[in-house]
Amino acid sequence: MGEIDEQTLAERAKRGDDRAFTKLVEMYERVIYNLAFRMTNDREDARDIAQTVFVKAYRKLSSFDPRHRFFSWIYRIGVNECLNHRARSRRFEELDPDLMAEGGAGDADERASTLLRSEAIEDSLMSLSVDYRTVIILRHFLELNQAEMAQILDVPEKTVKSRLHTARQLMAGQLGRRGIHQS
Amino acid sequence: MNRKDFERIANDELDGVATPAESESLRRHLAENAGAREEFEALREVFQRLNRVELEEAPPGLRQSVLQATVAQRREAAPVNRNAWAKTFLGGLLQAPNLRGAMTFASGLGVGAAAIAIVAGSLVGGRHADFSGMTGTMAPPKSESAGRLLESRTLELNGIKVTADTRRTADGVILRIEATGTGASGARIAAAFDRGALLPVALRMDPQSADEFEIGASSLWFTLSGAGTHTLSLRSESAHSAPLDLELRAGGESVRTKLRTDFSESR
Question: How far apart are CA A57 and CA A16, in angstroms?
Fold first, then answer.
Protein backbone atom coordinates (compact mmCIF):
# COMPACT_ATOMS: atom_id res chain seq x y z
CA MET A 1 0.00 0.00 0.00
CA GLY A 2 1.54 3.31 -1.02
CA GLU A 3 1.31 6.63 0.76
CA ILE A 4 -2.38 7.17 1.32
CA ASP A 5 -3.79 9.88 3.54
CA GLU A 6 -5.41 8.89 6.78
CA GLN A 7 -8.89 9.95 5.73
CA THR A 8 -8.79 7.60 2.78
CA LEU A 9 -7.45 4.85 5.02
CA ALA A 10 -10.23 5.49 7.52
CA GLU A 11 -12.86 5.31 4.81
CA ARG A 12 -11.39 2.08 3.52
CA ALA A 13 -11.20 0.64 7.01
CA LYS A 14 -14.81 1.59 7.54
CA ARG A 15 -15.73 -0.39 4.42
CA GLY A 16 -14.01 -3.43 5.91
CA ASP A 17 -10.48 -3.12 4.52
CA ASP A 18 -8.37 -4.64 7.31
CA ARG A 19 -5.11 -3.61 5.65
CA ALA A 20 -6.23 0.01 5.88
CA PHE A 21 -7.05 -0.45 9.55
CA THR A 22 -3.64 -2.04 10.14
CA LYS A 23 -2.02 0.97 8.53
CA LEU A 24 -3.97 3.30 10.81
CA VAL A 25 -2.83 1.32 13.85
CA GLU A 26 0.73 1.64 12.60
CA MET A 27 0.32 5.40 12.20
CA TYR A 28 -1.25 6.00 15.58
CA GLU A 29 0.07 3.35 17.96
CA ARG A 30 2.91 5.54 19.15
CA VAL A 31 0.84 8.63 19.92
CA ILE A 32 -2.01 6.71 21.50
CA TYR A 33 0.43 4.74 23.63
CA ASN A 34 2.14 7.97 24.69
CA LEU A 35 -1.17 9.63 25.45
CA ALA A 36 -2.03 6.72 27.72
CA PHE A 37 1.44 6.55 29.24
CA ARG A 38 1.48 10.23 30.11
CA MET A 39 -2.02 10.01 31.51
CA THR A 40 -1.29 6.98 33.70
CA ASN A 41 2.49 7.06 34.17
CA ASP A 42 2.37 3.28 33.91
CA ARG A 43 3.69 1.49 30.82
CA GLU A 44 1.69 -1.68 31.34
CA ASP A 45 -1.53 0.23 31.80
CA ALA A 46 -0.66 2.36 28.79
CA ARG A 47 -0.23 -0.72 26.67
CA ASP A 48 -3.58 -2.11 27.81
CA ILE A 49 -5.29 1.20 27.18
CA ALA A 50 -3.74 1.59 23.73
CA GLN A 51 -4.91 -1.87 22.78
CA THR A 52 -8.40 -1.15 24.04
CA VAL A 53 -8.50 2.14 22.12
CA PHE A 54 -7.77 0.45 18.82
CA VAL A 55 -10.15 -2.41 19.47
CA LYS A 56 -12.89 0.07 20.32
CA ALA A 57 -12.03 2.11 17.24
CA TYR A 58 -12.30 -1.02 15.13
CA ARG A 59 -15.64 -1.85 16.65
CA LYS A 60 -16.94 1.69 16.18
CA LEU A 61 -15.63 2.21 12.65
CA SER A 62 -19.14 2.00 11.27
CA SER A 63 -20.01 5.14 13.24
CA PHE A 64 -16.97 7.10 12.04
CA ASP A 65 -18.03 10.08 9.95
CA PRO A 66 -15.43 10.63 7.21
CA ARG A 67 -16.32 14.32 7.12
CA HIS A 68 -14.45 14.58 10.41
CA ARG A 69 -10.75 14.11 10.88
CA PHE A 70 -9.74 10.59 11.83
CA PHE A 71 -7.09 11.74 14.29
CA SER A 72 -9.69 13.73 16.27
CA TRP A 73 -11.88 10.67 16.42
CA ILE A 74 -9.18 8.27 17.59
CA TYR A 75 -7.72 10.77 20.08
CA ARG A 76 -11.17 11.22 21.53
CA ILE A 77 -11.52 7.49 22.02
CA GLY A 78 -8.05 7.58 23.57
CA VAL A 79 -8.85 10.32 26.05
CA ASN A 80 -12.14 8.68 27.00
CA GLU A 81 -10.43 5.35 27.52
CA CYS A 82 -7.83 6.97 29.77
CA LEU A 83 -10.66 8.47 31.82
CA ASN A 84 -12.43 5.11 31.96
CA HIS A 85 -9.22 3.48 33.07
CA ARG A 86 -8.78 6.05 35.78
CA ALA A 87 -12.31 5.47 37.04
CA ARG A 88 -11.70 1.72 37.15
CA SER A 89 -8.32 2.15 38.84
CA ARG A 90 -9.86 4.28 41.53
CA ARG A 91 -12.41 1.59 42.18
CA PHE A 92 -9.69 -0.98 42.65
CA GLU A 93 -7.58 1.33 44.73
CA GLU A 94 -10.57 1.44 47.03
CA LEU A 95 -10.54 -2.33 47.09
CA ASP A 96 -7.05 -2.53 48.46
CA PRO A 97 -5.94 -0.11 51.18
CA ASP A 98 -2.30 -1.05 50.48
CA LEU A 99 -2.57 0.51 47.05
CA MET A 100 -3.81 3.75 48.52
CA ALA A 101 -0.44 4.22 50.11
CA GLU A 102 1.18 4.10 46.71
CA GLY A 103 -0.24 7.44 45.77
CA GLY A 104 -3.49 6.88 43.93
CA ALA A 105 -5.47 9.30 46.03
CA GLY A 106 -5.10 12.57 47.81
CA ASP A 107 -5.19 16.11 46.57
CA ALA A 108 -2.74 17.53 44.08
CA ASP A 109 -0.68 19.43 46.63
CA GLU A 110 -0.31 16.38 48.86
CA ARG A 111 0.84 14.27 45.94
CA ALA A 112 3.12 17.02 44.69
CA SER A 113 4.88 17.07 48.03
CA THR A 114 5.69 13.38 47.83
CA LEU A 115 7.01 13.30 44.32
CA LEU A 116 10.26 11.45 44.36
CA ARG A 117 11.13 10.19 40.96
CA SER A 118 13.01 11.23 37.87
CA GLU A 119 12.07 14.24 35.83
CA ALA A 120 10.43 17.03 37.76
CA ILE A 121 8.25 18.06 34.86
CA GLU A 122 6.82 14.57 34.47
CA ASP A 123 6.14 14.31 38.18
CA SER A 124 4.57 17.70 38.11
CA LEU A 125 2.37 16.60 35.24
CA MET A 126 1.15 13.58 37.18
CA SER A 127 0.21 15.74 40.12
CA LEU A 128 -2.25 17.73 38.01
CA SER A 129 -5.91 16.86 38.00
CA VAL A 130 -6.96 14.84 35.00
CA ASP A 131 -8.54 17.76 33.10
CA TYR A 132 -5.38 19.81 33.33
CA ARG A 133 -3.12 16.87 32.59
CA THR A 134 -5.11 16.03 29.48
CA VAL A 135 -4.76 19.47 27.90
CA ILE A 136 -1.05 19.59 28.62
CA ILE A 137 -0.52 16.19 27.00
CA LEU A 138 -2.61 17.02 23.96
CA ARG A 139 -0.96 20.39 23.46
CA HIS A 140 2.67 19.74 24.32
CA PHE A 141 3.20 16.06 23.59
CA LEU A 142 0.72 15.43 20.80
CA GLU A 143 1.10 18.98 19.48
CA LEU A 144 -2.55 19.67 18.86
CA ASN A 145 -3.87 23.22 18.57
CA GLN A 146 -6.62 24.55 20.77
CA ALA A 147 -9.38 24.11 18.18
CA GLU A 148 -8.43 20.45 17.72
CA MET A 149 -8.30 19.94 21.46
CA ALA A 150 -11.72 21.53 21.89
CA GLN A 151 -13.14 19.14 19.32
CA ILE A 152 -11.57 16.10 20.94
CA LEU A 153 -12.58 17.06 24.46
CA ASP A 154 -15.98 18.34 23.38
CA VAL A 155 -15.59 21.59 25.29
CA PRO A 156 -15.44 25.20 24.05
CA GLU A 157 -12.08 26.50 22.90
CA LYS A 158 -12.05 29.06 25.69
CA THR A 159 -12.32 26.22 28.22
CA VAL A 160 -9.30 24.54 26.65
CA LYS A 161 -7.41 27.79 26.81
CA SER A 162 -8.34 28.42 30.40
CA ARG A 163 -7.38 24.88 31.45
CA LEU A 164 -4.06 25.18 29.64
CA HIS A 165 -3.22 28.44 31.36
CA THR A 166 -4.14 27.12 34.79
CA ALA A 167 -2.27 23.86 34.24
CA ARG A 168 0.89 25.67 33.20
CA GLN A 169 0.56 28.04 36.12
CA LEU A 170 0.26 25.11 38.52
CA MET A 171 3.27 23.42 36.99
CA ALA A 172 5.32 26.61 37.16
CA GLY A 173 4.38 26.95 40.81
CA GLN A 174 5.37 23.38 41.56
CA LEU A 175 8.70 23.65 39.78
CA GLY A 176 9.31 26.84 41.72
CA ARG A 177 8.54 25.14 45.03
CA ARG A 178 10.91 22.33 44.12
CA GLY A 179 13.63 24.87 43.47
CA ILE A 180 13.81 24.11 39.77
CA HIS A 181 15.23 27.06 37.93
CA GLN A 182 16.21 27.54 34.37
CA SER A 183 18.59 24.90 33.14
CA MET B 1 -1.87 45.40 31.53
CA ASN B 2 -4.18 43.70 33.96
CA ARG B 3 -3.59 40.25 35.43
CA LYS B 4 -6.00 38.45 33.12
CA ASP B 5 -4.50 40.01 29.99
CA PHE B 6 -1.00 39.24 31.19
CA GLU B 7 -1.79 35.53 31.66
CA ARG B 8 -3.47 35.28 28.28
CA ILE B 9 -0.82 37.15 26.33
CA ALA B 10 2.08 35.43 28.12
CA ASN B 11 0.64 32.02 27.20
CA ASP B 12 -0.13 33.11 23.65
CA GLU B 13 3.38 34.47 23.27
CA LEU B 14 4.93 31.18 24.34
CA ASP B 15 2.42 29.27 22.22
CA GLY B 16 3.51 31.38 19.27
CA VAL B 17 0.04 32.76 18.59
CA ALA B 18 0.31 36.27 20.05
CA THR B 19 -0.19 39.13 17.60
CA PRO B 20 2.71 41.57 17.06
CA ALA B 21 0.79 44.19 19.07
CA GLU B 22 0.29 41.77 21.95
CA SER B 23 3.96 40.75 21.89
CA GLU B 24 4.95 44.40 22.06
CA SER B 25 2.62 45.16 24.95
CA LEU B 26 3.96 42.11 26.78
CA ARG B 27 7.53 43.22 26.18
CA ARG B 28 6.74 46.63 27.65
CA HIS B 29 4.96 45.10 30.63
CA LEU B 30 7.87 42.79 31.38
CA ALA B 31 10.35 45.66 31.11
CA GLU B 32 8.45 47.59 33.76
CA ASN B 33 7.51 44.80 36.11
CA ALA B 34 10.02 42.51 37.83
CA GLY B 35 7.31 40.24 39.26
CA ALA B 36 5.82 39.71 35.82
CA ARG B 37 9.29 38.95 34.42
CA GLU B 38 9.84 36.30 37.02
CA GLU B 39 6.46 34.79 36.36
CA PHE B 40 7.00 34.82 32.62
CA GLU B 41 10.38 33.10 33.00
CA ALA B 42 8.80 30.41 35.18
CA LEU B 43 6.16 29.86 32.51
CA ARG B 44 8.81 29.75 29.79
CA GLU B 45 10.63 27.12 31.84
CA VAL B 46 7.49 24.97 31.88
CA PHE B 47 7.18 25.25 28.10
CA GLN B 48 10.81 24.38 27.57
CA ARG B 49 10.70 21.39 29.85
CA LEU B 50 7.46 20.10 28.38
CA ASN B 51 8.77 20.49 24.87
CA ARG B 52 11.90 18.52 25.77
CA VAL B 53 9.90 15.44 26.74
CA GLU B 54 10.20 12.91 23.94
CA LEU B 55 7.57 10.43 22.90
CA GLU B 56 8.40 6.84 23.75
CA GLU B 57 8.25 4.10 21.18
CA ALA B 58 5.15 1.95 21.31
CA PRO B 59 5.91 -1.37 23.02
CA PRO B 60 6.89 -4.19 20.70
CA GLY B 61 3.96 -6.45 20.03
CA LEU B 62 1.28 -3.83 20.63
CA ARG B 63 0.26 -3.74 17.00
CA GLN B 64 0.14 -7.51 16.83
CA SER B 65 -2.00 -7.67 19.97
CA VAL B 66 -4.39 -5.14 18.50
CA LEU B 67 -4.72 -7.07 15.28
CA GLN B 68 -5.27 -10.35 17.13
CA ALA B 69 -7.90 -8.69 19.27
CA THR B 70 -9.71 -7.31 16.25
CA VAL B 71 -9.77 -10.76 14.71
CA ALA B 72 -11.33 -12.06 17.93
CA GLN B 73 -13.74 -9.13 17.83
CA ARG B 74 -14.79 -10.00 14.30
CA ARG B 75 -15.54 -13.53 15.40
CA GLU B 76 -17.56 -12.32 18.33
CA ALA B 77 -19.48 -9.84 16.21
CA ALA B 78 -20.31 -12.35 13.52
CA PRO B 79 -23.97 -13.39 13.19
CA VAL B 80 -24.36 -16.17 15.67
CA ASN B 81 -26.12 -19.42 15.89
CA ARG B 82 -25.04 -22.09 18.26
CA ASN B 83 -23.29 -24.12 15.64
CA ALA B 84 -21.27 -21.16 14.47
CA TRP B 85 -20.29 -20.40 18.03
CA ALA B 86 -19.27 -23.99 18.61
CA LYS B 87 -17.11 -23.92 15.50
CA THR B 88 -15.32 -20.76 16.60
CA PHE B 89 -14.97 -22.00 20.11
CA LEU B 90 -13.60 -25.37 19.07
CA GLY B 91 -11.27 -23.67 16.60
CA GLY B 92 -9.92 -21.62 19.46
CA LEU B 93 -9.42 -24.71 21.55
CA LEU B 94 -7.47 -26.41 18.83
CA GLN B 95 -5.09 -23.48 18.83
CA ALA B 96 -4.76 -23.62 22.61
CA PRO B 97 -3.82 -27.17 23.58
CA ASN B 98 -3.74 -26.39 27.28
CA LEU B 99 -7.43 -25.58 27.13
CA ARG B 100 -8.55 -28.75 25.44
CA GLY B 101 -9.99 -29.97 28.69
CA ALA B 102 -12.80 -27.53 28.17
CA MET B 103 -13.93 -29.44 25.13
CA THR B 104 -15.94 -31.59 27.46
CA PHE B 105 -17.98 -28.55 28.14
CA ALA B 106 -18.18 -27.62 24.49
CA SER B 107 -19.62 -30.98 23.67
CA GLY B 108 -22.37 -30.34 26.14
CA LEU B 109 -23.62 -27.11 24.69
CA GLY B 110 -27.00 -27.52 26.28
CA VAL B 111 -25.38 -26.90 29.64
CA GLY B 112 -23.66 -23.79 28.45
CA ALA B 113 -26.49 -21.72 27.00
CA ALA B 114 -25.69 -18.83 29.29
CA ALA B 115 -22.02 -19.03 28.49
CA ILE B 116 -22.73 -18.97 24.80
CA ALA B 117 -24.66 -15.78 25.21
CA ILE B 118 -21.75 -13.88 26.58
CA VAL B 119 -18.85 -15.63 24.92
CA ALA B 120 -20.35 -15.18 21.52
CA GLY B 121 -21.65 -11.74 22.37
CA SER B 122 -24.85 -12.46 20.57
CA LEU B 123 -27.70 -13.34 22.83
CA VAL B 124 -27.40 -10.38 25.10
CA GLY B 125 -29.82 -8.29 23.09
CA GLY B 126 -29.53 -4.60 23.84
CA ARG B 127 -27.10 -5.00 26.66
CA HIS B 128 -23.79 -3.28 26.55
CA ALA B 129 -21.41 -6.19 26.41
CA ASP B 130 -17.88 -4.85 26.14
CA PHE B 131 -15.14 -7.19 25.04
CA SER B 132 -12.57 -4.47 24.71
CA GLY B 133 -10.14 -5.82 27.24
CA MET B 134 -10.53 -9.46 26.33
CA THR B 135 -8.15 -11.10 23.96
CA GLY B 136 -7.22 -14.65 23.21
CA THR B 137 -9.32 -17.75 23.43
CA MET B 138 -12.35 -17.65 25.65
CA ALA B 139 -13.34 -21.05 26.85
CA PRO B 140 -16.09 -21.60 29.39
CA PRO B 141 -15.11 -23.63 32.45
CA LYS B 142 -15.86 -27.30 32.48
CA SER B 143 -18.37 -27.02 35.26
CA GLU B 144 -19.12 -24.85 38.22
CA SER B 145 -17.81 -27.45 40.63
CA ALA B 146 -14.62 -28.20 38.68
CA GLY B 147 -11.37 -28.08 40.63
CA ARG B 148 -10.49 -28.10 44.30
CA LEU B 149 -12.04 -25.48 46.55
CA LEU B 150 -9.55 -22.86 47.67
CA GLU B 151 -11.77 -20.49 49.57
CA SER B 152 -15.37 -19.37 49.84
CA ARG B 153 -16.59 -15.97 51.04
CA THR B 154 -19.91 -14.24 51.36
CA LEU B 155 -20.65 -10.55 50.98
CA GLU B 156 -23.96 -9.05 52.03
CA LEU B 157 -25.21 -5.54 51.37
CA ASN B 158 -28.65 -3.96 51.10
CA GLY B 159 -30.45 -7.26 50.79
CA ILE B 160 -28.01 -8.65 48.24
CA LYS B 161 -26.03 -11.74 49.08
CA VAL B 162 -23.00 -12.68 47.01
CA THR B 163 -21.29 -15.97 47.62
CA ALA B 164 -17.99 -16.32 45.83
CA ASP B 165 -15.53 -19.15 45.76
CA THR B 166 -12.23 -19.84 44.08
CA ARG B 167 -11.26 -23.29 42.86
CA ARG B 168 -7.96 -24.56 41.64
CA THR B 169 -7.90 -26.65 38.47
CA ALA B 170 -5.03 -28.15 36.50
CA ASP B 171 -4.94 -25.05 34.29
CA GLY B 172 -5.65 -22.29 36.75
CA VAL B 173 -8.34 -20.83 38.93
CA ILE B 174 -12.10 -20.60 38.60
CA LEU B 175 -13.92 -17.78 40.32
CA ARG B 176 -17.59 -18.48 40.82
CA ILE B 177 -19.93 -15.71 41.92
CA GLU B 178 -23.49 -16.39 42.95
CA ALA B 179 -25.73 -13.40 43.58
CA THR B 180 -29.08 -13.70 45.31
CA GLY B 181 -31.47 -11.36 47.05
CA THR B 182 -34.27 -9.02 46.19
CA GLY B 183 -32.07 -5.96 45.75
CA ALA B 184 -29.65 -7.54 43.30
CA SER B 185 -30.68 -5.37 40.37
CA GLY B 186 -28.33 -2.45 39.74
CA ALA B 187 -25.63 -3.64 42.13
CA ARG B 188 -22.12 -3.91 40.79
CA ILE B 189 -19.57 -6.61 41.37
CA ALA B 190 -15.89 -5.99 40.72
CA ALA B 191 -12.99 -8.44 40.88
CA ALA B 192 -9.32 -7.58 40.63
CA PHE B 193 -6.79 -10.33 40.14
CA ASP B 194 -3.06 -10.71 39.93
CA ARG B 195 -1.92 -9.29 36.60
CA GLY B 196 0.74 -11.44 35.02
CA ALA B 197 0.09 -14.42 37.29
CA LEU B 198 -3.49 -15.02 36.17
CA LEU B 199 -4.83 -14.61 32.67
CA PRO B 200 -8.60 -14.43 32.05
CA VAL B 201 -9.55 -17.03 29.47
CA ALA B 202 -13.26 -17.54 29.84
CA LEU B 203 -16.26 -15.72 31.17
CA ARG B 204 -19.57 -17.40 31.69
CA MET B 205 -22.43 -15.17 32.71
CA ASP B 206 -26.12 -15.66 33.15
CA PRO B 207 -27.58 -13.21 30.64
CA GLN B 208 -30.76 -12.96 32.68
CA SER B 209 -28.94 -11.64 35.71
CA ALA B 210 -25.94 -9.71 34.42
CA ASP B 211 -25.95 -6.49 32.49
CA GLU B 212 -23.15 -4.24 31.35
CA PHE B 213 -19.76 -5.76 32.02
CA GLU B 214 -16.12 -5.26 31.16
CA ILE B 215 -13.13 -7.51 31.52
CA GLY B 216 -9.50 -6.49 31.28
CA ALA B 217 -6.09 -7.98 31.87
CA SER B 218 -6.48 -7.80 35.63
CA SER B 219 -10.06 -6.97 36.41
CA LEU B 220 -13.70 -7.76 35.79
CA TRP B 221 -16.77 -5.82 36.71
CA PHE B 222 -20.39 -6.26 35.88
CA THR B 223 -23.76 -4.93 36.87
CA LEU B 224 -26.36 -7.26 38.29
CA SER B 225 -29.83 -7.26 36.86
CA GLY B 226 -31.06 -10.08 39.09
CA ALA B 227 -30.05 -13.21 40.90
CA GLY B 228 -27.74 -15.60 39.08
CA THR B 229 -24.39 -17.34 38.90
CA HIS B 230 -21.35 -16.16 36.95
CA THR B 231 -18.01 -17.82 36.40
CA LEU B 232 -14.63 -16.49 35.40
CA SER B 233 -11.81 -18.83 34.41
CA LEU B 234 -8.27 -17.65 34.92
CA ARG B 235 -5.29 -19.47 33.53
CA SER B 236 -2.21 -19.64 35.78
CA GLU B 237 0.83 -18.00 34.31
CA SER B 238 2.99 -18.63 37.38
CA ALA B 239 3.06 -21.03 40.32
CA HIS B 240 1.77 -18.52 42.85
CA SER B 241 -0.58 -15.61 42.64
CA ALA B 242 -1.86 -12.96 45.00
CA PRO B 243 -5.36 -13.24 46.48
CA LEU B 244 -8.17 -11.95 44.35
CA ASP B 245 -10.05 -8.83 45.50
CA LEU B 246 -13.81 -8.84 45.29
CA GLU B 247 -16.12 -5.91 45.85
CA LEU B 248 -19.89 -5.64 45.98
CA ARG B 249 -21.24 -2.13 45.54
CA ALA B 250 -24.86 -1.11 45.92
CA GLY B 251 -26.67 2.06 46.91
CA GLY B 252 -23.45 4.03 47.29
CA GLU B 253 -21.99 1.53 49.77
CA SER B 254 -19.53 -1.26 49.26
CA VAL B 255 -18.20 -4.36 50.97
CA ARG B 256 -15.06 -6.21 50.04
CA THR B 257 -13.25 -9.44 50.58
CA LYS B 258 -10.23 -11.36 49.36
CA LEU B 259 -10.15 -14.88 47.98
CA ARG B 260 -7.19 -17.17 47.82
CA THR B 261 -6.00 -18.11 44.31
CA ASP B 262 -3.39 -20.70 45.20
CA PHE B 263 -2.64 -23.09 48.03
CA SER B 264 0.23 -21.10 49.51
CA GLU B 265 -0.27 -19.97 53.10
CA SER B 266 0.56 -16.35 52.57
CA ARG B 267 -2.39 -13.97 52.26
Answer: 13
